[in-house]
Amino acid sequence: MASYSDRRHLDGRNIVITGANGGIGRALCRRVRAEGATITAIDRAGDPQDPIWAELEAVFIALDVGQSRDAIADAVAEIESVEGLVNVAAVEANTNFPDFEDEEFARVLNINTRGPLHLMQTLRPRMGEGASIVNIITMDALLVLRTTAKSSALYAASKAALAMLTKELASELGPDGIRVNGVAPGLTDTPMSSIMPDERRQWIVGRTALGRIGQPEDIANASAYLLSDAARFITGQIVPVDGGMGAAIFGPPELAFEP
Ligand SMILES: NC(=O)c1ccc[n+]([C@@H]2O[C@H](COP(=O)([O-])OP(=O)(O)OC[C@H]3O[C@@H](n4cnc5c(N)ncnc54)[C@H](O)[C@@H]3O)[C@@H](O)[C@H]2O)c1
C-alpha cells in the first residue's frame, strides 16, 4: 500500500494560491505541484515571464487582492474549476497604535480579510464536493507576542477576523462537502520576517519547543495536507504550525526548581 509520503495527493486538482510569489507562496506552489496539482498563481508582485511559473506549469495572474470584488472576479474569470484555494497574500501594518489612520486600517483589512473573502465568494460556484480552502492566518491572531516595538494590532485583528470567517464558512460549506481550515504560522523565514532583528529572533527561538523558526516548507507541508483527502474529516480548524511556540509559556531558568 502506498504510504502517505509517496502518494500524489493532489493529482489533477487545480489549486489557486494567492501570494504565490512570496516565501511561503513559492514553497507551497512547489509542494502542491510535486503532489500532482495544477496551479493558478496569484500575486500583485512578480513577473508572469519568471521561469518559475513555466517550471511549475502554473498560470500566473497579476492581481492585487485588496481591490474590489468586481476587479477580483474579472481577474479570475478564466479559471474553470477549483479544487483548492489557499489565501496566502497578506501585509503587515506600517504604523503603530494609536497613530494609525483609517486609511491604513482599511488597507490592511482589504488585503488580509476582504481579499480572501472575495476570493472565497467568487470561486465558491466553481468548487464541488471534496474541495478544500486553506487560509493562512498567523499565531499573532491567537496569542499576543510583544517582541517588536512595532504594533501588531491591525495585522492581528485582520487575521483574527479571517480565522473566524474560516470557522463560519466551514460550517456553511460543510454540507456541500467543502472544507475550510486555517494554518497559523509562527515566525517563518521569509522576506516578510527578514526585518526582525536577530536578537528578537533568538528570543523567539528560545521560547519555541523545537528550538528554531519555521521554514516556508513547514507551512507548505501543513497546507498541502489540509488540501488533500488525507485531511478529509478536518474542517473549521486553525492549525498552529509554530514549532511549539504557542504550546507553552517559557519562564526564565532561574525559576526552575527540583520537585
Ligand atoms: N513569515 C512569517 O513569519 C509569517 C508568520 C505568520 C504568518 N505569516 C503569513 O504567511 C503568509 C505569507 O507570508 P510570507 O512570510 O511568505 O511573506 P512574503 O512577504 O514573502 O509573501 C507575501 C506575498 O503576498 C504578496 N502580496 C502582498 N499583498 C498582496 C496583494 N494586495 N495582492 C496580491 N498579493 C499580495 C506579496 O507580493 C508577496 O509575494 C501571510 O499571510 C503572512 O501573514 C507569515
How many strands?
A: 7
Query: Hetero groups bound?
Result: nicotinamide-adenine-dinucleotide
Order of helices and strands: EHEHEHEHEHEHHE
List the total number of helices. Answer: 7
Q: What is the fold named in CATH at topology level?
A: Rossmann fold
**Integer average pLDDT:** 93
Structural class: alpha/beta
Largest sheet: 7 strands, parallel
Q: Identify the quaternary structure here.
A: single chain
How far apart, in Å, are the first and last alpha carbons?
A: 48 Å
Strand arrangement, largest sheet?
3-2-1-4-5-6-7
Give the C-level CATH assignment. Alpha Beta
Strand content bin: 5-15%
Poorly predicted runs of 5 or more residues: none
Radius of gyration computed on alpha carbons: 19 Å
Shape: globular
Number of domains: 1
User: Under the CATH scheme, which architecture would be assigned?
Assistant: 3-Layer(aba) Sandwich
CATH superfamily: NAD(P)-binding Rossmann-like Domain
- Kindly state the percentage of residues in helix: 25-40%
Structure explained in plain terms:
By secondary structure, the chain is an alpha/beta fold. The protein has a single domain (9-242), classed as NAD(P)-binding Rossmann-like Domain (Rossmann fold), CATH 3.40.50.720. Helix content is 34%, strand content 14%. The chain contains 7 helices and 7 strands; from the N terminus they run βαβαβαβαβαβααβ. The protein has helices spanning 23-34, 51-55, 69-75, 102-123, 153-173, 198-205, 216-227, and strands at residues 14-18, 38-43, 59-62, 84-87, 132-136, 179-185, 238-241. It has a 7-stranded parallel β-sheet with strand order 3-2-1-4-5-6-7, with helices on both faces. Helix 1 packs across helix 7 and helix 4 runs parallel beside helix 5 (153-173). The chain starts with 13 loop residues before the first strand and ends in an 18-residue tail after the last strand. The protein binds nicotinamide-adenine-dinucleotide (NAD). The site of nicotinamide-adenine-dinucleotide has 28 residues, from helix 1. Nicotinamide-adenine-dinucleotide binds at residues 18-19, 21-25, 43-45, 63-66, 88-91, 111, 136, 138, 185, 187-188, 190-193.
